[in-house]
Amino acid sequence: MTSPKYVDSSAHSLSIDEYDYLDEIDDETALPFPAALSRSAFLTPDFSPQSYLSTLRNRHQTLEDLRSDLRSRVQDLSKELFDLVNSEYEDFLTVGSTLAGGEDRVEEVRVGVLGFRREVEGIRDKVRERANEVKELLDERKEVRSDVGLGRRLLDVDAKLTELEGRLGVDDAEEYDLDEQEEEDEVDEDEDGMGVTVTRLRKHALLYLLCRRAMDRIGHHPYLTAQKGRVDKIKSTLMLDLNATLRQAKAKGKDSGGSLLKIVSMYRELGEVNDAMKILKTR
């Protein structure tokens, strides 16, 4: 029979430090558990899943545990969102009940708006009425200015007719005593005695043409119609003087110098060339 073998316990004895280390291994609370995922990390405006996962590479956690934590976080966020929507929806549904009893205020506002609308319409009617009055006054002012301008043109025509009557001695009209009378009597040295008559007739003809043009610009007017007799007498007197001067120049022949051509040009300007031709053809 073989004698049992005894193990030398002294050969396998452990030190006190080694026993403490074994106790720490058996204690699960001493292991480095990862911290909970930060809620604020998901709330950043520029949140990026790739960037966020890259910050978790130093976590003492398996990939499966990390997935489990992320799923839990998603579920929590979904529950919070659901609760928030329900809360806001309930508040929305209670809005109708909180507004109950405000019909009187709504009616007051409606009546106030209608009153304001009537006031605005009244002001608009007054503005429209005043605008019509201003338009009528402007039209009246325009008519008055037009009448004033017409009156000035008529006075100018009358002044020209009166001056022509004075120059030509029509009927009993007084002959004009003008400062320019001396200028009319001046004759170039190379002209004969007819120079005075031709120069004066030239000015009479020009004044008559200016008067007719002023009358043409005015057009038909009762005053101008009434002045037809004066105009006919002025033209008749002017043509008599012009015919007499042309006969005198024709009688002198070459001695009349350039007076004959000047007289004929006056006939042309007055539109009476035929009268000049008749005189020139008469022997």
Provide an overview of this structure:
With 283 residues, the protein is an all-alpha fold. Among the domains are: 63-93; 148-281. It is built from 10 helices and no strands. The chain has helices spanning 16-26, 49-54, 63-98, 103-168, 181-185, 195-218, 222-226, 228-252, 259-270, 273-281. Helix 8 runs parallel beside helix 10 and helix 9 packs across helix 10. It is elongated, with a radius of gyration of 62 Å. The relative contact order is 0.05. The model is unreliable at 1-14, 21-29 and 178-192 (pLDDT under 50).
Annotate the secondary structure layout.
Layout: H1 16-26, H2 49-54, H3 63-98, H4 103-168, H5 181-185, H6 195-218, H7 222-226, H8 228-252, H9 259-270, H10 273-281
Using brief descriptors, characterize the structure shown.
283 residues; mainly alpha; elongated; disordered N terminus
Low-pLDDT runs = 1-14, 21-29, 178-192
Number of distinct beta strands: 0
Estimated share of beta-strand residues: under 5%
Order of helices and strands: HHHHHHHHHH
Which overall shape is indicated by the principal axes computed on the Cα atoms?
elongated
Whole-Å distance between the termini? 201 Å
Largest sheet: none
Report the mean per-residue pLDDT as an integer.
Answer: 77
Helix count equals 10
Q: Fraction of residues in helices? A: over 70%
From the helix content, strand content and strand pairing, which structural class follows? Answer: mainly alpha
Radius of gyration from the CA trace?
62 Å
